[in-house]
Amino acid sequence: MLGLMQDWPLVCHKILDHAATYHGGREVVSRSIEGPLHRTNYAEVRVRALKLAKRLEMDGVKLGDRVATMAWNTWRHLESWYGILGLGAVYHTLNPRLFPEQIAWIMNDAEDSLLFVDLTFVKLIEAIAPKVPSLRRVIILTDDAHMPETSLPGAVSYETYLAEADDDFAWAEFDERTAAGMCYTSGTTGDPKGVVYSHRSNVLHAMTAVQPDMLNLSSHDRLMPVVPLFHANGWSTAFSCPMAGASMIMPGAGMDGESIYQMLTRERVTITAAVPTVWLMLLQRMEKEGGDLPDLERVVIGGAACPRAITRAFQDVYGVKVMHAWGMTEMSPLGTVCSIKPEYDDLEGDAKLDLLSKQGHPPFTVEMKVTDDENRELPWDGKTFGKLKVRGPAVSASYYKGRGADQFDAEGWFDTGDVAHMDAHGYMQITDRSKDVIKSGGEWISSIEIENLAVGHADVAEAAVIGVAHPKWSERPLLVVVVKEGRTPLKSDILGFLDGKIAKWWMPDDVVFVAEIPHTATGKIQKMSLREQLKDYVLPDG
Amino acid sequence: MLGLMQDWPLVCHKILDHAATYHGGREVVSRSIEGPLHRTNYAEVRVRALKLAKRLEMDGVKLGDRVATMAWNTWRHLESWYGILGLGAVYHTLNPRLFPEQIAWIMNDAEDSLLFVDLTFVKLIEAIAPKVPSLRRVIILTDDAHMPETSLPGAVSYETYLAEADDDFAWAEFDERTAAGMCYTSGTTGDPKGVVYSHRSNVLHAMTAVQPDMLNLSSHDRLMPVVPLFHANGWSTAFSCPMAGASMIMPGAGMDGESIYQMLTRERVTITAAVPTVWLMLLQRMEKEGGDLPDLERVVIGGAACPRAITRAFQDVYGVKVMHAWGMTEMSPLGTVCSIKPEYDDLEGDAKLDLLSKQGHPPFTVEMKVTDDENRELPWDGKTFGKLKVRGPAVSASYYKGRGADQFDAEGWFDTGDVAHMDAHGYMQITDRSKDVIKSGGEWISSIEIENLAVGHADVAEAAVIGVAHPKWSERPLLVVVVKEGRTPLKSDILGFLDGKIAKWWMPDDVVFVAEIPHTATGKIQKMSLREQLKDYVLPDG
Ligand SMILES: Nc1ncnc2c1ncn2[C@@H]1O[C@H](COP(=O)(O)OP(=O)(O)OP(=O)(O)O)[C@@H](O)[C@H]1O
Ligand SMILES: Nc1ncnc2c1ncn2[C@@H]1O[C@H](COP(=O)(O)OP(=O)(O)OP(=O)(O)O)[C@@H](O)[C@H]1O
Ligand SMILES: [Mg+2]
Ligand SMILES: [Mg+2]
């Protein structure tokens, strides 16, 4: 017996319809690529997205076609997403920080036919376009006044392109499982893999993201996604904000501490989201120049483990609540948020910081388990770590073209590649990546935990722990450190600082000072390269 | 091109799995039918629901079978729902306040095979059971110690029934569109019609209900559903609370002001929900006996228009936020909640009360429009009223057995039978039921607005406005009033009180004092009966 309820497909453009109807005047404020601030709202964004969908259709774009974007967070990029997906085509975000060869490889893999690109990246794309035969047209996200000279195929300014269509258009109709978007993983552990979101997964994901114990997004919020739309599905902000009727404050290309501070304060941002590196830059800027954050209520920090020093500064110095979050491109991306459940309401001081340094607990629709190598479930005791596996309607069932099939098992569990433990109340903490785990004498050591402690030392700018071959223990941890400008700590200072904070046998065997630690295009430490770089290093007793 | 995300069906029992895993210790506190308070939690509720599902399967219950419940809100009723739906059978809630013949008719219409019933209703069901041939077994929601003598077929105590199965059981697997529950409408405008919820609709509905601008449910909430589970799908609390990890405080049979006050305060309830009548009883009790509501943050009021006097008392006297909500059995049931959007943040005093007396705005997934008789959309100007039509994944596509087909149109819109206007920010206000609309000289008069004003008069206990035939205007409003004990207002007092508050031509032509106004089984004014009762009344100038 089936229910007798309506077949109302979960499609992304209905989110924008809702925003335009019930929160039509709510602002979308952007720092434009051309310079000035630009103000619009959901009602206008929807009209322009409809025009764009019509224009794309006139251009021969069809259901399932991949249309790429390489752009900062602005209203035009937002409109592009909805224009593309509202036609049943697939927005495919490109990360401009990848190597040009990687970008070309990804575009060819996805067979992108059109590309929306910011002025910033025109030169970059001019070098890539000739290597992407499927690319037949490039729309530059600007107006005619700012159009550059360019060799790009079919180049046209976004505003002119839009003006060639009216808004007398109805969103296309299709099954909710239709592909809506595409994003490749960051490539921290190897080559990026293509993830294909459906309309359904994006909608369900946004419906969980806005919930009170997750981002708690309401129509009173003004959210600034500093995380770019090209990182892990833009952390869903393009869907969760209009769904909740929250204003969006778009930082454009201004990703430095000063620009972010200006946008946060001038635009009275209440909630913002980015990777730890961004917040480090903001905090450094504020430490130097002063200032406060009177409107900002909460900051979502994810993409990499959030060092305690950041949490402490936001909380104690600026009165901002830190929400540590964990996600993956493959999870749309939100997996967990570290909001405080009643069981932990009474925590204070260090105990509270301990909790907030966990990655948090999942919303309804995300299932998790932690297993050993034989796929046996491990206890939720807050210390036994193993492979973290997940399931849910916004979790990948496979990668594009069937790559990485071994990460998916028969019961539908996806192996995240993260190593984690869970506590009795379902708080998850990542201790490592599977590929970065250090195995000393058969036991695992958490590199992330040591790194997070090490960056708490006043002289340390960045820290990474990698495993180095050891004759007796098979592997031992090595601490690699970038020191802050003008500081000259001794190895013993740093190790002494760790003493008592970690188990004796976790203590790194040595410290190596380097000028720079290699990063991925999303700003994460690239341990593969670091291990490669230090492959000739030999431990003191090795 | 389809997305490559997991096929993770939206089924109701996954909500309980989530609650048991991530909010397992969160309390479910009930005033038991036997008397004492009973405390359990989501982890235990889940184990018992699994046992129940297994026990039902042993009893031959199959996918799609209708299993009825006639019970107050207790942990056992909650377990019954999940035990039934977790097997793929259909919980069918019966309203014990209907006439026995209506109950028998409904049970036969649904072909209920089993029934879970509270001790309170054993006698009632004994009279009905012989008329329901499909009913083969009755489980009485108590333990052996409290089992009554009964002639009911296969009668067994719930605890004994449960004990006959272990919890080694996996939830059944089926499509998310499978029927999960069944509820008949209240029968205000005619015979009750069967609504069949799917797993998908219940899950999506709960995902919207918990959102910040809706009920804003979090793991810190302790929600008391005073609204019975047999009213309009229990207002979704059986799903939204475990989804959010909110505690449930179940009032059992204690629906009087004193019992409710005791539960609210002793169990530190933060949010509660019921029809206006319940809140009138509570407020009367508090006015008489004193007391305050220190933990209660918000009260959800729906099912009928909420008189301003109630809103004012909660807000000004007890510091509790009123959330006026509108819903229908056919909408799972939530349609709108009157939370305050930024546009209205600055309202105060009467202007704020005006806003809060609206039924509110819908969440994402509820589409609304207001049309005239020719299905032309009317402007959203806050005054032009017409037929309210809705669409969404948790809105009925049809009634059971195809009844009432004229309420559904080809584009999927469901005619709610309510008459309403919308304002520019999407706030909806109900002015009438289509069947109760008063048409004076071709123009519509809102009976609900006049009623809500009239009950603001100090001597008025209850008020209803109906249309009465008029030679010149075709229909004119008549105000029917029940006065408070010991009061003897004059007609002119009451009309004078309305003067200046409504348009001159809305002023009722007369006032009739009656001892009682007829109500439906859900406590709503039954205007059909009232018109019948006053059919011989003639207007002063009629
Ligand atoms: N709060 C966090 N704490 C620790 N690690 C995090 C956190 N959030 C995300 N991560 C890490 O980021 C990963 C997801 O990142 P993303 O999807 O951008 O690609 P990637 O895993 O870095 O790259 P690739 O999968 O191509 O190797 C997670 O699997 C996890 O390792
Ligand atoms: N906040 C509210 N203000 C005014 N009316 C409301 C409110 N909430 C619900 N209602 C009324 O209740 C109706 C839904 O009630 P329900 O589904 O219990 O059955 P019913 O409409 O009373 O009965 P039937 O459909 O069988 O005639 C709505 O259509 C509306 O008329
Ligand atoms: Mg990865
Ligand atoms: Mg009705």
UniProtKB/TrEMBL annotation, chains A, B:
It comes from Hoeflea marina. Its EC number is 6.2.1.44. This is 3-methylmercaptopropionyl-CoA ligase. GO terms for molecular function: ligase activity; metal ion binding. SUPFAM superfamilies: Acetyl-CoA synthetase-like (SSF56801). Belongs to the ATP-dependent AMP-binding enzyme family. Signal peptide: none annotated. InterPro entries: AMP-bd_C (IPR025110), AMP-bd_C_sf (IPR045851), AMP-binding_CS (IPR020845), AMP-dep_synth/lig_dom (IPR000873), ANL_N_sf (IPR042099).
